[in-house]
């Protein structure tokens, strides 16, 4: 239907079209406000996607209908594609389909009331014509909800796997899961249990494009949570950081320490603290922020359990040393403090310099160049100091 079908002249139809377009912003804003008041499930302050795409969905829906009324095609193919994508998002995030359908019913009610009010006040528009406008709004709503349902249904098969992975994430985040339950859910979800995982705390970037933000395909997704997160496997594997940076480009993300799956709540706690730290200190290069790169400031703020993880991780090369481990740790600490000056370390420890040089060779063989990296010096000193403070550590 077009405005020219309402027994209006071309000039009257053009003028009424201008009136309706002038009301579009107010009608859309009113519809969004009504939806947020009646459907709180679509209001998630921690994830600006919901507000952005709710506004876009409503504005496009009403705006494109006005375009059709005024003689254009309203970009209907693009509009249907948008709502199909939105249907996939609804399915992936576990939002009941009828919640979004109710969203469109609410916005349609507001649109019918306001657009027919505008048309009814225009000279030459009869009650019959207004009824035809309302009828076509309802037909248009069917087109939108049909596209949404198409996208929703297309995601169901993939959604079954998604739901199983989400159930596994919920299980491990509750804490102390039974190993047999983890194995069963992981097998159902087609998710091989990795040696280590890391939790990733997320906030959607306001400028990110598209209704579905990218996430790693092998992650356990927690985008349905009030504070979105992921669990990613083997985060410290080869190329892991670069891969995460590419896959999480739509997010401001913080990656917690790598831990066994049963300890993922600890990783998530530190990921969220790291995200808070990044918010205070700035986004850096825009990629994910890693807890391991900010261990010292986080420890200073939050306490000992991250220090335990830092010490275990950095000092792992000496874990299996059964003889002289304490002597090597003491030598390492003094080397870190003196810039690996063997003569000065020998004086501090009251030992012959040749003994210190022998120990330093063992340390270099065990740790590689990492212990001589000046950017990691403070972390290694903190780790060794913590190791001594939490002793004894029998050889």
UniProtKB/TrEMBL annotation:
<dbReference type="InterPro" id="IPR025736">
    <property type="entry name" value="PucR_C-HTH_dom"/>
</dbReference>
<dbReference type="InterPro" id="IPR058663">
    <property type="entry name" value="PucR-like_N"/>
</dbReference>
<dbReference type="Pfam" id="PF25906">
    <property type="entry name" value="PucR-like_N"/>
</dbReference>
<protein>
    <submittedName>
        <fullName>Helix-turn-helix domain-containing protein</fullName>
    </submittedName>
</protein>
<feature type="domain" description="PucR-like N-terminal">
    <location>
        <begin position="14"/>
        <end position="173"/>
    </location>
</feature>
<dbReference type="Pfam" id="PF13556">
    <property type="entry name" value="HTH_30"/>
</dbReference>
<dbReference type="InterPro" id="IPR051448">
    <property type="entry name" value="CdaR-like_regulators"/>
</dbReference>
<dbReference type="InterPro" id="IPR042070">
    <property type="entry name" value="PucR_C-HTH_sf"/>
</dbReference>
<feature type="domain" description="PucR C-terminal helix-turn-helix">
    <location>
        <begin position="328"/>
        <end position="384"/>
    </location>
</feature>
């Amino acid at each position: 239907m077009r405005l020219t079908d309402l027994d209006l002249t071309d000039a009257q139809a053009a003028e009424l079209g201008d009136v309706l377009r002038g009301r579009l912003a107010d009608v859309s804003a009113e519809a969004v406000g009504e939806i947020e008041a009646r459907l709180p499930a679509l209001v998630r302050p921690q994830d600006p996607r919901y507000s952005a795409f709710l506004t876009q969905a409503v504005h496009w829906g009403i705006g494109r209908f006005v375009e059709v009324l005024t003689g254009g095609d309203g970009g209907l193919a693009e509009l249907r594609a948008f709502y199909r994508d939105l249907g996939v998002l609804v399915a992936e995030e576990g939002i009941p389909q009828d919640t979004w359908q109710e969203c469109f019913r609410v916005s349609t009610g507001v649109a019918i009331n306001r657009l027919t009010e505008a048309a009814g006040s225009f000279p030459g528009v009869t009650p019959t014509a207004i009824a035809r406008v309302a009828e076509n709004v309802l037909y248009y709503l069917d087109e939108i909800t049909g596209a949404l349902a198409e996208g929703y249904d297309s995601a169901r098969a993939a959604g079954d796997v998604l739901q199983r992975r989400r159930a596994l994430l919920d299980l491990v985040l509750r804490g102390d899961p039974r190993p047999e339950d983890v194995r069963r859910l992981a097998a159902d979800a087609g998710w091989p249990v990795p040696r280590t995982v890391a939790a990733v705390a997320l906030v959607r970037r306001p400028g990110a494009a598209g209704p579905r933000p990218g996430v790693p395909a092998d992650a356990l997704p927690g985008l349905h949570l009030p504070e979105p997160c992921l669990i990613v496997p083997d985060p410290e594997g080869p190329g892991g950081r670069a891969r995460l940076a590419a896959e999480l480009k739509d997010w401001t993300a913080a990656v917690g320490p790598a831990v066994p799956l049963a300890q993922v709540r600890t990783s998530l706690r530190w990921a969220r603290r790291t995200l808070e730290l990044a918010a205070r200190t700035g986004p850096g290069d825009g990629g994910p922020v890693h807890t391991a790169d900010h261990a010292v400031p986080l420890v200073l703020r939050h306490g000992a359990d991250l220090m335990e993880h830092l010490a275990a991780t950095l000092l792992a090369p000496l874990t299996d040393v059964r003889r002289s481990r304490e002597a090597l740790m003491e030598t390492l600490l003094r080397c870190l403090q003196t810039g690996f000056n063997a003569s000065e370390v020998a004086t501090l420890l009251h030992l012959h310099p040749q003994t210190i040089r022998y120990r330093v060779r063992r340390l270099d063989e065990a740790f590689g160049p990492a212990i001589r990296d000046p950017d990691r010096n403070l972390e290694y000193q903190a780790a060794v100091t913590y190791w001594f403070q939490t002793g004894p550590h029998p050889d």
